[in-house]
Amino acid sequence: MIRKAVLPVAGFGTRCLPASKAIPKEMITIVDRPVIQYVVQEAVEAGIRDIVLVTHGSKSAIENHFDKHFELEAGLEAKGKHELLEELRSIVPEDVNIISVRQPEPLGLGHAVLCARPVIGDDEPFAVLLPDVLVDGDGLERNDLAGMIESFDATGRTQLMVEEVPHELVYKYGIVAPEGEPPAAGEAGALAGLVEKPKVEEAPSDLAVIGRYALPGAIFPLLAETPPGAGNEIQLTDAIETLRQQSGVDAWRMLGRTYDCGHQLGYLEAILAYGRRHARYGEGFRELLTRYSGEE
After folding, report:
1. I want to staple 183 with a disulfide (CB 3.0 to 4.6 A). Which of 6, 84, 189, 286 is the partner?
2. Model pTM greater than 0.85?
3. 159: domain CATH number?
4. CA dihedral 72, 76, 79, 84 (to 10 degrees)
5. Could you tell me which residues are beta bridge partners of residue 270?
6. Over pLDDT 70: what percentage of the chain?
């Protein structure tokens, strides 16, 4: 059973500039909490109990968010603001550990994952969650990450979470090549390969990798030996391709929806989706949407 997850958060967030100039992109808020908190919550709901943040010296705000703030909590308690105090204390459940490691140089996603090797070890499987993307499991009995982890547990094979994207946009994504028919939503299927940002006419499918992975610890020795690839960076996909050739890799087709919060329109869409159903602000937010929807 996968109980550990790696969240690479060391990047500078250039797609989010100028908002991310002084604030980590992962700390930009969706309604009333930062993006990174939603991603951690997703992991916790899937059974993850050790969360490894691969971070950078300029990202201390992320670590502080998940740390205890004694003075603030004491002040809230003294003022009788117990509901807000409980919200702060529930950011990280008591049985969940937040662990930070540093990525000293920006050498790629594969290198960021490799930085977690001393914490994870080579004998234990783990998940990787890219914090740019919110995976929304609203209305599902279990979230998509839990389903993908269950598929990994059943097969022992590396899992890549994928979703269907419009065919004309496949050139923006890493697109998987299924063996045979593509898997149905909520199911996994073997892969024949992965093509990074293919031409529309050459794409092997419309299923795009969306930043969630279930990996064996055996990927660490492969990453350590993987030479720099595209952009002169160590690419996670290169090591995954080696795993595919050795033991097979599956695509797990998600049921929910994704929001790319590393892109301004994706971020705004996430605010709309999460704001409309927010327990405290949802009703008022829906009224605002109605009010402004009539304006040009």
Report:
1. 189
2. yes
3. 3.90.550.10
4. 150
5. none
6. 99
